[in-house]
Automatic annotation (TrEMBL):
Provenance organism: Geothrix rubra
Entry protein name: CAAX prenyl protease 2/Lysostaphin resistance protein A-like domain-containing protein
A Pfam family that the UniProt record links to this protein: Rce1-like
The organism's taxonomic lineage, starting at the top: Bacteria, Pseudomonadati, Acidobacteriota, Holophagae, Holophagales
Superkingdom field: Bacteria
Membrane spanning stretches: 15-36, 179-208, 228-250, 300-326, 346-363, 384-403, 423-441
Signal peptide location: none
């Protein structure tokens, strides 16, 4: 603490402006290279069923539980094939088509996966549905994983069990029970989202109606200059890349704990960012936290469910408006799904959950809502400060397809900060949002 300056940072423009330009150039270069790398990875076919395929599978399979044929004919088939273009998504559809009795469609879709595992899948499919030779008995665990461990994988395994004299009916019964549970979970999740969306509309109407009412407390005040704020943000952004790459390099020799690169990298850049922020303002972390979380905390936390509902309503509205214009064959969360698929055991899963739903919201809300929003509001109107911080929050995640959703979430989090004057509300909403996405992806995509 002795090294902490006694007053907020006011850098000299003669050297600060060139440094800001340099850091901004480096940040743009790092962001550009990251986006190019993501695009290259997204262009490669996935080696397993996607999250979208796993989510559609129960809906496409549900009619069989009602004693009807699956809706894989006509327009329904065309719509499913248009949305699911990954090779193993189409393999999943080929099993569902065969279960529906459409072997022509099934054969065509089964051609999608390439490579040795694609050949093994086609051999298993032909043995199960087309009187082909048995490929060695039970369905290989690797094939079940590539199909997503869902209804289609279980049904394919049951047909192969029938061929070798096994108890295929027991497998089908278990598959139907698992499908019912998954449908119930998706139905409950859908009802929860719908309820939150309707509640969010009411919250939005209330906030508009009371927009001129006096607020309980103002936004936190910062003494550092605009140039100092720009240097803090740009340095933090570059630290984000450096910490992530350093953590990945340190964990590279240890494949079994390579997942630790994510919590390690995030912990490094969060600690560095907070230290940088305290140093620039000239205060210890304890004072920083007092400034961002004025009492009573329970009042700020009580607003959390209301703003979570508002976030759901705004994202649902955006989905309705922008859905027809967004490409459905690209997944903005593909990297997260890949990461979650690599987790095995409760330890890594819980650790990653704590990073996604705890550490990330804590640091990001401190930076964006506790720091950036008040700094922007010093020079701009509150409306432009909210929009600017929301757009930067969306852009910083480097997910072009997710930019509208992330920016809408950032706007709601900014409104929460403005309404309560405490970062606790935004942290709670952000944590619930990230936690729900994590659980959904872990359940369906893991």
């Amino acid at each position: 603490m002795d090294a902490t300056p006694a007053s907020p940072w006011q850098p000299d423009r003669r050297w600060a402006d060139p440094l800001i330009a340099l850091l901004a150039t480096l940040a743009l270069l790092a962001a550009g290279l990251t986006l190019l790398s993501k695009r290259a990875r997204a262009g490669r076919p996935a080696d397993h069923a996607s999250l979208q395929g796993r989510m559609m599978e129960p809906l496409l399979s549900a009619p069989r539980l009602l004693g009807t044929r699956m809706p894989l004919r006509g327009t329904s088939a065309a719509r499913a094939q248009a949305q699911l273009k990954e090779p193993w998504d189409r393999a999943l559809l080929s099993v569902l088509a065969a279960e529906d009795g459409d072997l022509v469609m099934g054969r065509d879709l089964a051609r999608a996966p390439q490579g040795p595992w694609g050949d093994r899948f086609r051999a298993a499919w032909a043995a199960a549905y087309d009187h082909g030779p048995l490929p060695g008995g039970a369905l290989a665990p690797e094939l079940r994983e590539r199909l997503g461990h869902g209804y289609a994988a279980a049904m394919l395994a049951s047909r192969l069990a029938d061929r070798v004299g096994g108890n295929g009916e027991a497998l089908r019964t278990a598959a139907r029970e698992a499908l019912l549970l998954r449908l119930a979970a998706l139905g409950a999740f859908g009802l929860l989202v719908t309820g939150l969306g309707l509640g969010g509309v009411a919250v939005g109407i209330y906030l508009v109606a009371t927009r001129k009412a006096p607020l309980p407390r103002p936004l936190p005040e910062w003494g550092l200059s605009g140039r100092a704020a720009a240097l803090v943000l740009l340095t933090w952004f570059l630290l984000f890349f450096l910490a992530g790459n350093l953590a990945a390099l340190l964990m590279a020799p240890f494949p079994h704990v390579r997942w630790l690169a994510v919590p390690l990298g995030y912990g490094l850049h969060a600690a560095g960012g907070l230290a940088l922020l305290c140093r620039a303002e000239g205060i210890p972390f304890r004072e920083l936290w007092r400034r961002l979380t004025p009492p009573p905390a329970r009042r700020a936390l009580a607003w959390g469910p209301a703003f979570l509902a508002l976030a759901v309503a705004m994202v649902m509205g955006l989905a309705l408006v922008l859905g027809p214009f967004l490409k459905s064959d690209e997944a903005p969360q593909r990297e997260l799904v890949e990461l979650l698929r690599g987790l095995s055991g409760w330890g890594p899963t819980v650790a990653m959950f704590l990073v996604v739903a705890g550490l990330a919201p804590f640091f990001e809300e401190t930076l964006f809502r506790g720091f950036l929003l008040p700094v922007l509001a010093r020079r701009w109107s509150m409306t432009w400060a909210l929009l600017g911080s929301a757009l930067l929050f969306g852009a910083i995640h480097l997910q072009p397809l997710g930019l509208p959703t992330l920016s809408a979430l950032g706007l709601v989090l900014g409104l929460a900060m403005r309404r309560t004057g405490s970062v606790w509300t935004a942290i709670l909403v952000h944590g619930c949002w990230n936690g729900a996405v994590f659980i959904l992806m872990r359940t369906l995509g893991g």
